[in-house]
């Protein structure tokens, strides 16, 4: 079993995200704001 964990994993070049995906996630995180009132939190997305 120890031999399985000691092998170096091969890196895949096909697993890189597209620029559109990165742009979408960054824009979404910029527009998202979380407001906490008492014990309730509200997620607001400003478009």
TrEMBL record:
Top-rank lineage group of the source organism: Bacteria
- The protein depicted here goes by the name Uncharacterized protein
């Amino acid at each position: 079993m120890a031999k399985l964990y000691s092998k170096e994993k091969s890196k895949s070049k096909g697993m890189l995200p597209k620029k559109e995906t990165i742009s979408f996630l960054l824009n979404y995180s910029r527009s998202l704001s979380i407001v906490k009132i008492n014990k309730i939190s509200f997620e607001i997305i400003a478009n």
